[in-house]
Design brief:
The chain has five helices and eleven strands; from the N terminus they run αββαβαβαββββββαβ. It has 185 residues and is α+β, with helices and mostly antiparallel strands.
Length: 185
């Protein structure tokens, strides 16, 4: 709950950039980055340092943090996941703000916020998973698998032949293509 206001603020900043027209730069790994990525990261890192200054933060846009050895407990942040979808401006809103707390190599808390869709997903170990839309939170869970009716959710921007072959080999009935971490929600 302490992080939700900062996630919403980061989402607001992302939408400001989205509306005025994002300009991309290319990072050393060849992936795109925008002003929205950087501004959202600053908002989130500032909040995390206030809430839990003793916990290491590894963040997508902070390359130096990638060199740090992961501790038993750390925050993993992607301030704007789905930058390619963000740059498309296709109206689908498949870009998110992501924060997770990793403890002993296992996620124990996570927030995914899709600002263009005004949808927030959050969960915590021993608390369950929730979705907030229009200010109303409801508990969510994965549906039970029904034989012959498996639905695969795959990347909208990174589909490769290996994934396609796996889907065919495993008789996946339906495939949905979704950008960013929304596919996990």
């Amino acid at each position: 709950n302490n992080l939700k206001p900062s996630v919403l603020k980061a989402g607001e900043k992302i939408m400001d950039v989205y509306k005025k027209g994002p300009k991309k730069e290319i990072k050393t790994d060849g992936s795109p980055v925008t002003e929205a990525d950087k501004d959202a990261e600053e908002i989130i890192l500032t909040a995390l340092k206030k809430v839990a200054p003793e916990i290491l933060i590894i963040s997508e846009e902070n390359a130096i943090s990638h060199e740090k050895a992961a501790e038993k407990r750390f925050f993993l942040v992607d301030p704007l996941d789905g930058t390619k979808e963000f740059l498309k401006k296709d109206g689908k809103g498949c870009f998110t703000v992501n924060i997770s707390l990793i403890e002993n190599n296992t996620p124990s808390m996570g927030i995914v916020y899709a600002p263009a869709l005004d949808q927030m997903f959050f969960g915590c170990k021993n608390f369950g998973a929730w979705k907030t839309v229009n200010g109303k939170s409801t508990r969510i869970s994965a549906r039970k698998t029904q034989r012959g009716k498996i639905i695969a959710v795959t990347s909208a921007s990174h589909q490769d032949p290996e994934t396609t072959n796996w889907l065919e080999k495993n008789n996946i009935a339906t495939t949905k293509y979704i950008g960013s971490s929304l596919k996990f929600c």
